[in-house]
């Protein structure tokens, strides 16, 4: 699902590191599953969670019934969904997949030449979004999806946990987190026997960077240079 801050571009780099040494039947867990663009590329036991109910309902719709997504979602449909804010799969799908940049109701998607009310553009954007959902659906089968905060999530013993939380000093999401609390939660999960990885630009000194790459992004507040995506784990 199209989602602001998606890690789809770096999945091929970070997943081999995250999954290295994964044991048979070991759970892979994402407490900040977002658009599901990483967890869809993992096999076996998987658990994805997010505290945004629209995210989880949209992913459930994509997983279970993508064919029910309309073949045409107009700008009027978009505005109605934005106004009513029903907590259901289609509203969640419209809020993210039909929005510019995958930002929650961040404005209806248009091509460069697309203008407001352009039927050809609306057909194109709906077709692209539904096609992506139909493809993603195949890779989300049997993936458990839960709506809850990361610190309320019940995680199977000795899981591999990958966290992609809202980054500090970037475009704001609908909710923010207490970073000090999050860092301590990561430490506690490590001490409980889980293997934990975090995507961020920086972390406290007891976390170690195991991968980094300079990438352009829509999330950075700096226009002068490209930020460096990093993957961290806890020093052993």
Describe the structure.
The protein has helices at 11-19, 53-64, 75-84, 89-97, 119-140, 179-191; strands at 28-30, 46-50, 144-147, 160-163, 195-200, 207-214, 228-234. With 236 residues, the chain is α/β, with parallel strands linked by helices. It folds into two domains: 8-51 and 148-234, Vaccinia Virus protein VP39 (Rossmann fold); 59-140, no CATH class. The protein has a seven-stranded mixed beta sheet, with helices on both faces. Helix 6 links the parallel strand 4 and strand 5. The longest helix is centred in the middle third of the chain and has 22 residues, at 119-140. It is globular, with a radius of gyration of 18 Å.
Which key phrases capture this entry?
single chain; 236 residues; alpha/beta; Rossmann fold; 2 domains; 7-stranded mixed β-sheet; 6 helices
Please bin the fraction of helical residues: 25-40%
**Main beta sheet strand tally, sense and closure:** 7 strands, mixed
CATH topology of the largest domain: Rossmann fold
Low-confidence regions: none
Shape: globular
Give the helices and strands as they follow along the chain.
Answer: HEEHHHHEEHEEE
CATH superfamily of the largest domain: Vaccinia Virus protein VP39
Please outline the helices and strands.
Elements: H1 11-19, E1 28-30, E2 46-50, H2 53-64, H3 75-84, H4 89-97, H5 119-140, E3 144-147, E4 160-163, H6 179-191, E5 195-200, E6 207-214, E7 228-234
Parallel strand pairs: 1-2, 1-4, 2-3, 4-5
Antiparallel strand pairs: 5-7, 6-7
Helix pairs in contact: 2-4, 2-5
């Amino acid at each position: 699902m199209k989602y602001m801050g998606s890690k789809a571009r770096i999945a091929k780099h970070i997943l081999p590191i995250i999954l290295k040494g994964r044991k048979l039947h070991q759970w892979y867990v994402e407490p900040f599953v977002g658009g599901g663009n990483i967890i869809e590329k993992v096999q076996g036991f998987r658990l994805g969670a997010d505290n945004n109910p629209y995210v989880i309902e949209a992913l459930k719709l994509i997983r279970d019934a993508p064919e029910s997504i309309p073949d045409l979602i107009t700008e009027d449909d978009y505005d109605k969904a934005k106004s009513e804010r029903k907590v259901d799969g289609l509203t969640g799908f419209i809020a993210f997949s039909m929005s510019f940049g995958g930002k929650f109701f961040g404005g209806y998607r248009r091509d460069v030449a697309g203008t407001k009310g352009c039927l050809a553009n609306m057909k194109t954007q709906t077709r692209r979004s539904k096609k992506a959902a139909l493809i993603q659906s195949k890779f989300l089968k049997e993936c458990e999806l839960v709506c809850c905060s990361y610190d309320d999530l019940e995680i199977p013993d000795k899981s591999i946990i990958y966290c992609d939380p809202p980054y500090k000093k970037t475009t704001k999401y609908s909710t923010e987190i207490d970073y000090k609390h999050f860092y301590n939660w990561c430490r506690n999960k490590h001490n409980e026997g889980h293997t934990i990885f975090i995507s961020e630009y920086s972390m406290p000194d007891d976390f170690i960077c195991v991968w980094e790459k300079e990438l352009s992004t829509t999330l950075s507040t700096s226009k002068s240079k490209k930020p460096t995506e990093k993957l961290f784990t806890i020093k052993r």
